[in-house]
Amino acid sequence: MVKSYFTDVRRKFEHSKTFGQICTASANVVWDPSSENEDSTSRGGAGRAYVGANDEVLLWDLKKSEKVGIWNTADNNAIVTVICRSQVDPDVFAVGYDDGKIRIWDSRTATVIITFNGHRTAITQLIFDHSGVRLASGSKDTDVIVWDLVAEVGLYRLRGHKDQITSLNFLTAGDSPDALHGGSSSHDFLLSTSKDALIKVWDLSTQHCIETHVTQTNGECWALGLARDGSGCITAGNDGELKVWSINEIVLKEKFRTNVPEGQYILQERGTLYRHGRDRPLGIAFHPQRDLIAVHGSDKAVEILRIRSETELRKSLARKRKRRKEKTGTTDADSGVDVADEVEDPTDISNAAAADIFVPYVLVRTGGKVRSMDWAGGKSGKSIRILVATSNNQLELFEVAASDMKKSSDAPEYNRALTVDMPGHRTDIRCVALSSDDRMLATASNGSLKIWNTRTQTCLRTLDCGHALGVAFLPGDKIVVVGTREGTLEVFDIAASTLLDTINAHERDIWSLQVSPDGKSLVTGSADKSAKFWQFKVIQEQILGTTRKSARLTLVHTRTLKVTDDILSICFSPDERLLAVSTLDNTVKVFFTDTLKLFLTLYGHKLPVLAMDISYDSKLIVTSSADKNVRVWGLDFGDCHKAFFAHQDSILTVKFVPNNDEGNGHHFFSASKDKVIKYYDADKFEQIQKLEGHHGEIWAMAVAHSGEFVVTASHDKSIRIWQQTDEQIFLEEEREKELEDMYENTLLTSLENDANTFDGEGNADGVEAGPAGKQTAQTLMAGERIAEALEVGMEDLKTMQSYAEAKRTNPKGAAPQRNPIFLANNNMSASTYVLSTFQKIPSASLQDALLVLSFSQVPALFTFLALWAEEGRSIPLTCRILLFMLKTHQKQIVSSRAMKGMLEEVRSKLRSTLMRQKGELGFNLAGLRVLGRRVREVAGETEYVDEETWQEGDAAAPGMARGKKREFVNIA
To answer: Which fold does the domain 160-296+301-318+350-365 belong to in CATH?
Structure first.
């Protein structure tokens, strides 16, 4: 019999809500003007920010500081690493994740349009081409893949770099033959940089690298910024080095026509700049309208450079020439050399140094280390705005005064116009506490205390505090006490948002504090080797300047418990009979609360006990340690019931689930630095459930007094609520899921190792272009479904063919029994069943699924391709499958005589179907042209215009707008 944990406290816990994260350092920020919103930039708004927050993409309204959207899928737990917006269709976003997947999102519906999976490691760069139909992606696996968004397939993989890709940009030859003759796409080049300090130019028509340059003189290349007109770019390296490159458009246009003379390159080095800070630059962005460049590193500043105009550059060079001539003329006067006679062209600026072209404009200081930035549109031409995402979980919008761009001794002023910082902490949350009714949550970090509504996940209060290590609600849920690293206790009034009192409680860090079960006192444990008891007392305090008095709560020290080592954790038993204290000597000492006499000493852990909790019937105590073990002890005699290896890293917190009517209150949660939460049964010593979702060390955890949910806080800046559901837990199913995940991970690892040593062309190294596919568990399962459908379909075809032949001799013969699969699908035909199997496979995974098929299954597939071509069903899908299989198995098909007749059959049927569809398409187009002509005639327009009228219209056009509002006509 399958064992089920079906009682109230043994139901399954699932992730419910995530909050507290504004932006994470893993991804970049993208600014959106949100013009269709009522708070658009044209109406005084500040637009929206699209940021990565662990495994989600968050949409923030910058003016209201509100979260207006969340993008995530149920099957995704990978961290967002890069966000890219299409310039052609602003509603389309490409989002890269650290598991190598790319999802194309529609911002209007917040849904995934396409999912690509071709990289083996995290995505580092994404860029749309100029037409918006192709996407280039770079990854830590050193590969660049170009994707077709229309066909939803990967076109090819470009190999050549030796380290992770740091930047990608498309370059287009404007008057290429394809563009001149109305081709579907222009002749494009791709610019890529990597941490291997190389910049490469790829010809996408031949899929080969045509130029390679060393970008930096010292170390890696971290970023690249392309000028808005495509005339040049800047690369960033170590020590604040910025190298300027010009792009030779003439060579770019002639590269594919004739052999360019040796020595002429697309990229030409123009000089080197150095930014204000000497740390490595991480981002370079050219302003979309102005001659400005923003550069940032990992420090707390964004440096803005200005590009001098041609006139200003000539004046600057003239001044330098004049000073140089004056200086050299006076110096060389004795030698008789007249340097002033030197011939220089005052109009030549082609050889100007990079430092003369790019000059500092302003240095914007930010509130945290800059992770990413983006230019934001201004409300007017009087200022420019820049959006900055910092590594301390906040967004800042700066306004910089737009000067006249002329020489000035003073840098333009700037100010922080807007900020999004209230919905999250700046530093890691080290402690959490729930109110008695579970409606409020207190979280404390280094410098701030926040009160949250657990139902709406909104921040109610933000208060300044010290470096918090412990927090607790006092009875009544109106006052919160915080223990700090400085050894002080800070008492806060939530309603008034004020600090009531600061008590110097200990000489060193207060690692733990807890309110007594009767709600009358508080105990604190500190690194000064003492535990102190504090009594709650209300005192009357005189109001300054008046004779009136007001009541104020204070803490009165009553008793002190001295121990031999630093106290790391302290805990009351629910019946308040015992007090457990864990110390730095790896032991837990249990004292009687009333007399403070030692009752038990628990030995066994190899490293200090970091957390502990006592069950609600005061019979068990569970301890967790830095030795990755959890131990369950009995409080009657201090015997160890069980010690088991629970996590892969130090276990930072452990909590029992409260008792209820049917449970015994002996289930507990443990959270660790390994980013995992585990749910255990302390009686049977079994793991009930494993909860995964955090992307950093879990520092704190709190269990609701009702037992309905669990709150955890992590190093990833997120606060997660794990809600109890009505779904029952079956331990055997949980173990089977873990085994399946382990087998799947092993399979994926083996597939990745095979891909690293052998590619689809049969070469391991030296191939610049390769297939863009990647085998995953989903593609393997899809391939197995195709093979199964082909097998069942061929059997049914043979059965029905035999029945048709037998029916000629015996018309009254009984029909054969078909496979139950066809009967369950309304007795569909075999070709329809196989076609539906192909249509259910995502287009992006189809080619990888077809690679699973062996050559022995190709004849069966071609049989169904001929049937689909004859019936005219899904011709685009049929052609795509046919061409891919011909390309994959070309050598075997050519050498097989049996395939010749089958190929001829497919060719003839497909050709006749395509010709028929071509005629239908031409007929429909002609009909649409007739309808269009009639519409124009009704509107009073004609296809022919008198020459004099046309010339009069051209003469009037410069002074007035050419376009008129469209007329809407109802077509019956």
So the answer is: Methylamine Dehydrogenase; Chain H (2.130.10)
